[in-house]
Amino acid sequence: MILSMTGYAHASADFSAGSLTLELRAVNHRYLDLQLRMPDELRGFETPLRETITAQLQRGKVECRINYAARGAQSGATLNHNLLQQLACWNDEVQTALPNARTLSVAEVLNWDGILQTPTASADELRDTLLGLLQTVLQEFSASRAREGEKLKEFLLVRVEKIEALRLGVMPHVPAAIAAYEFKLIHRLRDALQGAEDERIRQEITLFASKIDVDEELSRLESHLTEMRRILVKGGA
Predict the structure, then answer these.
(1) How confident is the model at residue 73 (pLDDT cuts 50, 70, 90)?
(2) What are the structural domain ranges in the chain?
(3) Are 15 and 124 spatial neighbours (Cβ–Cβ below 8 Å)?
(4) 9 within 8 A of 141, measured Cβ to Cβ
(5) Taking Cα atoms as reference points, which of 202, 158, 201, 209 lies closest to residue 180?
(6) Contact 144, 195 (CB under 8 A)
(7) What are phi and psi of 60, to 5 degrees?
């Protein structure tokens, strides 16, 4: 299978503390040049991320971009019931001591520091979610490279066959073309070198004709086309 050097894939994952989005893109490069772009809170996972990517990619200028959106206070938050009960007790005590005092409103309770508990992910959960998301993206990334590589393979094979057809079309005409060129060159040399011996002229023409013979080049071209077919069928990165 032929794999294109360019590729792109992205995916997102939701978990208890928020959501992750991972994007992977690559262009042609002689070696593997990997750049990781991520928020600071994920920097602790850079080593396993690099190890996972480099285990599957060997070449290309690769950019891995990760976005992390933590859940806000009103997204997935739960009430701190212990604190809520404590506020209720305090409210009753204040009402007993000060009958005319205003009771706490719902808005005031919800704005009380610590009354809303937002979920937080453990380091293990965040790591597992991130690496699992990376594996998903790498699979799609490889699939996109394979799809583009297959298109490139078909494109190149068509060109190989066209070149081969041209080569086969040229070969039968080579001897006649060389003979015609020799004949024309002999007459030009006779006119230019009046008095020279025919044998001497023929030797020079034969030597020059051997230098312009394209049989060797056509044979070498056949070898190149055969090797190109083999590589395209065998595949690889």
Answers:
(1) very low
(2) 7-70+127-145, 78-117, 153-234
(3) no
(4) yes
(5) 209
(6) no
(7) 110, 155
CA–CA dist 132, 138 (Å, integer): 10
Q: What CA–CA distance (Å, rounded) separates 178 from 214?
A: 9
- DSSP assignment of 33-102 equals EEEEE--GGGGGGHHHHHHHHHHH--SEEEEEEEEEEE--TTSS-EE-HHHHHHHHHHHHHHHHH-TTSP
Name beta bridge partners: 139.
none
Give the architecture (CATH level 2) of 7-70+127-145.
Answer: 2-Layer Sandwich (3.30)
Q: What is the pLDDT of residue 193?
A: 62
Is the pLDDT confidence value at 111 over 60? yes
Instruction: List the structure tokens of 41.
Output: 């809170």
Two tokens, residue 103: 């009771």
Spacing of C-alpha 23 from chain mean position: 10
Residue type for 69, please? A
Q: Please answer whether residues 236 and 3 qualify as being in contact, where contact means their C-beta atoms are separated by less than 8 angstroms.
A: yes
Phi, psi dihedral angles at 201 (to 5 degrees): -65, -40
Closest CA to 63 of 31, 30, 2, 22: 22
Report the predicted TM-score, pTM, of the whole model to 2 decimal places: 0.61
DSSP state of 120: -
Q: Are 187 and 201 in contact (CB under 8 A)?
A: no
CB 32 within 8 A of CB 57: yes
Element (H, E) at 9: strand 7-15
